[in-house]
Task: inverse folding
């Protein structure tokens, strides 16, 4: 018995058939449009990175790297990781060309990222993410700009202020506050990691007391830091007011040093973070030399798609050809290709139904594929040199020479 | 002493800084434009594939997979490979939805591909490739179309017929010819693999004699197969005549069954294959059920770039913002963001120089980045509400309200 190969993709990854790709492209194109509207330049790098890039924070982090990433040895005994996030790569690239770059540097990328997930239903091991970063500026207006860009990504998809909120916090402020309560640096780190999970766990208060050795009243909303206040006021000047200070918004990564934020879906069915980021002013110093201040955010394709579906905003960039040339018999296939080629030469996308199906089926298939025109090619057309273009939306027909019909399509 | 992280990318991979990315995007955009001009739809899949996908041909192939690919075990003991080529993935996806798809199916993708290369200078471990495939059509006109598309990719970059040639062959014909000489199926396979390396080795004749057990006169050009003849005649009808039958063009992969071809650079400095492909009529049958005929080709970003550089055709899709707003002092940064936001709202890409550099340096940096306009914002502008737009190409200045200046840029 012949054992057949599975047609499934690797566990936790997705196949993008053209109809899925059209949705993906709609999301990517919108992301790229907004990033470039703000003058961010596109960059990229390999999905393979030296594993060391993610191990900078010592042994505890090393364990995380090994357990939650795809990390393996290559044949030269180099430890390689499939990138789980893009910020370390961006910091590496900035550090490498620090002297040649003209700051402020604004970069964006749409990388695929990997994480090793245990066997949980529906958890993906690969996703794509819009990443925008602004390097070289300490000023609070950089924070304002980046959050404005994230806000504008949402509105570019048609989202309105009631559909999402911007949760904002300041790591430096939280740290100062906890230090003022007498917590040690290690206790502060543990408390921040606990705050990050606050919405997901039931026993926050018990665990917080365990870390601090006493009860800390997080519910007494303290006055925002002056930095946070200026950022929020700046956003208001730019018309952005669906902003809320949230003490439990701290972001998981250790490298954040200042303002952090999340875009949160306000709907009850999909009440979750769609993306976020923050300021990381010391990340490039891991590579030596003076640190370059940075602030960035990421937004995933899966969370974006869930948000758009939840709010009825999902659409797709479908790319059907303008014309399908339909030969009546396979013996006319080559002539049909020659005809199609004349349309292509004028920039009109054209394809030929080379199959052996009946004429009616071929025309129905073109219509299903959202093609604009068909041109049937048989003995009569080949003999006379007169062709007929049929518009599929309303059945209108136009007859003429090829040159005339090319002109009709090219003027669309 | 603090040990710093390296800023180098992983061995054999590339960082794409914005200036590199602009070249990459020029290549990718041109590829996508031509593929869609021919009605090919974009698809994609994960770089991670089950290793079995590349092991279908038994133990010998398994060794190749292990030695020349990135293959590792995940924590669920699944063997995973970073895809070395895209055709098996396309065949897998076609096989999975065979019943739902309306043939002919035309697909293209621009995947990144990986191969494990030993430590050779300049050899890359990751590259990108345009892949175009046409499924469901046996007819020779499908071969003609696919080769025409590959030809058109070259001309879309500005290449002329003297810069490259299309080397074409027919695996079925070669196989018949060798069988007629009395070679066994294994000898035929070995001879085809040897023919693939003919241009790269000195002792072809010796090795060929060793395989066949006798001398085979490859130089006596036999008459092309009738299939090959029809494809070449068909290409001529579409105006493509830089085509040459080449017995040593057999393509490395075992799955090819019919017409195979390569686009070859004719220059003496870069005399190499830029891409190629062929017909593989049985590939989907590995997944069970009736086979779907297929023909496809691939073309790499590195070979494409080398070709374009060799022939002076390389350019880049640079995406500078239209406008840079330049605050005279950091205290005007927020107001500058507010001004930029008004341009963005009209679809004009705009950025703010948030840095603390001198005005002159900021304007010079904008000019270096190929920005079209700058708008300087200081006390006077904030007080009067009258702003001045300076066109950087010729120094022309236009003054007016923000609304008036937005209109100037939006009408570009």
Result:
């Amino acid at each position: 018995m012949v054992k057949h190969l599975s047609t499934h993709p690797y566990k936790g990854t997705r196949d993008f058939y053209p109809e899925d790709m059209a949705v993906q492209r709609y999301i990517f194109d919108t992301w790229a449009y907004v990033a470039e509207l703000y003058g961010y330049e596109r960059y990229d790098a390999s999905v393979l990175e030296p594993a060391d890039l993610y191990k900078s924070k010592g042994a505890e982090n090393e364990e995380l790297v090994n357990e939650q990433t795809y990390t393996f040895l290559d044949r030269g005994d180099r430890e390689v990781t499939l990138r789980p996030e893009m910020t370390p790569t961006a910091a590496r690239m900035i550090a490498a060309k620090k002297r040649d770059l003209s700051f402020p540097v604004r970069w964006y990328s749409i990388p695929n990222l990997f994480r090793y997930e245990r066997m949980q239903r529906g958890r993906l091991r690969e996703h794509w993410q819009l990443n925008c970063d602004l390097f070289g500026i300490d000023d609070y207006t950089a924070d304002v700009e980046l959050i404005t860009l994230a806000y504008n990504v949402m509105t570019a998809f048609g989202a309105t202020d009631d559909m999402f909120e911007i949760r904002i916090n300041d790591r430096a402020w939280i740290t100062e506050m906890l230090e003022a309560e007498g917590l040690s640096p290690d206790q502060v780190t543990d408390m921040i990691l606990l705050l990050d999970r606050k919405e997901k766990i039931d026993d926050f208060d018990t665990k917080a007391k365990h870390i601090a050795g006493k009860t800390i009243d997080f519910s007494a909303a303290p006055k925002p830091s002056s930095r946070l206040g200026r950022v929020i006021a700046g956003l208001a000047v730019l018309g952005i007011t669906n902003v809320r200070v949230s003490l439990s918004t701290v972001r998981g990564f250790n490298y954040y040093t200042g303002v952090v934020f999340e875009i949160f879906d306000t709907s009850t069915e999909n009440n979750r973070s769609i993306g976020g980021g923050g300021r990381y002013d010391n990340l490039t110093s891991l590579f030596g030399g003076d640190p370059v201040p940075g602030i960035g955010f990421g937004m995933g394709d899966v969370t974006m798609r869930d948000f758009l579906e939840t709010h009825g905003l999902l659409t797709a960039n479908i790319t059907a050809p303008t014309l399908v040339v339909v030969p009546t018999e396979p013996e006319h296939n080559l002539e049909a290709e020659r005809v199609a080629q004349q349309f292509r030469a004028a920039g009109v996308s054209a394809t030929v139904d080379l199959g052996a199906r009946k004429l009616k089926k071929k025309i129905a298939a073109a219509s299903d594929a959202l093609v604009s025109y068909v041109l049937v090619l048989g003995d009569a057309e080949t003999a006379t040199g007169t062709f007929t273009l049929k518009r599929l939306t309303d059945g209108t027909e136009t007859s003429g020479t090829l040159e005339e019909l090319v002109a009709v399509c090219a003027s669309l």
